[in-house]
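Batch job 17 of 40 flagged for manual review because the log was empty.
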Amino acid sequence: MMDDATLLRHFASDRSEAAFAELVRRHLNLVYSVALRKVGGDVHFAEDATQNVFSALAHHAASLANRPVLTGWLYTTAHFTAAKIVRTERRRQQREHEAQAMQQFHSDPTPEADWDRLRPMLDDVMHALNGRDREAILLRFFEGRPFAEVGAKLGLNENSARMRVDRALDKLRALLARRGVTSTTAALSLLLANQAVVAAPASLAATVTSTAVAGVATATGGGVLAFLQLMSASKTVAGLAGAMVIAIGTGVIVQQQATARLREEVASLQQIKTEIAPLRAGNQRLAQAADEVPSLRRDHAEVVQLRADVAVAKQKLAAVAKTPAVRNRNTSTIRNGVPDDNLDQGKETGVPKVISQVAPVYPMGLRMDGETGEVTVRIIVDTNGDVQDASVLKSSDPDLSAAALAAVKQWKFSPPSRNGRPVKVRLQETVIFNLADD
């Protein structure tokens, strides 16, 4: 069975339909599955993506024939081809949505009501702006120029012109708010673009032109005007025909300007939608943060309590640390032991003496709390003077008992004897725990 590279070479050199059909048979399921996942299960889009992948394979067969493994290329190409179809479909849906939004805006009576409130004071607040901001708004919204042309007029690049217009629009909105007309920046921009400049009557252009020209002629010489007024009726008719031509041309120009403004507004709406997306994401993050505030407050209260507990503990440790080191080693006292029960005859047995004594470790918790106490211990001393066994007879605290036993088991006594012979003896010792004074 020929491998993928051989089949591709056959197709690239001989245009073998059978070789290409075999490649499709081998890899069709892989490509279709990748495309189907990427387009969200839409069968038609997945079929289109699969078709585009194998069309690209046929187009690049010669360059791909040297690949030892074709599966990776097909997998990657299917992924990106399906992603492109998804992006194209989203853009189409977005354009339809924006077109619908524009249609609803122009059919909605609300902008007309807003314009009725804005119109009486628009020119007053426009003149309250400084010259640069006023020119930016006039060029952008009153003349309907794109940002590139606004920047060229103001000596700025396109992005700087956009920022200038946005700042000026914010200032205008603030001035209107002071006069009781509140609106969003986006709504204000739409009102200005669609309502600030309206088409003049078609015949007005001809009248204005002729009057202005006549006025110039009057200023340069009054006799000429008198002569023109005596012209024949035929020339008057010809002038009216010219005025009609001018009026028709003016109407076409106005319509083109309105179309250009609509296109600019669609682009502006797209930009506004792009800018709103991160704001919405920011609002979601703020909402999540607000939900976490009670938990953070509880954590903060616990931290404050822990800090207070640590401060108290530090104060107690500081108070304990003021006790000199020598006193710490001598915080217990030992009463001399007396024979409690001689294994033979106690009165004839010499009482052993402590020759090596380990001081008990005062439990830190009891020391910090100022607790004192006594522990009575029964000790069996062997013939070598070592403590063979020790047990508590009486104690004021279990922690003190443990500390006393741990220390007593390490004590060393002088070897006990009776009549010169070594013997075992049982003693009773009392270990006293107290906070030594200076």
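Reviewer: the log was empty due to a logging misconfiguration, but the result itself is present. The longest helix spans residues 233-321. Unflagging and moving on to job 18.
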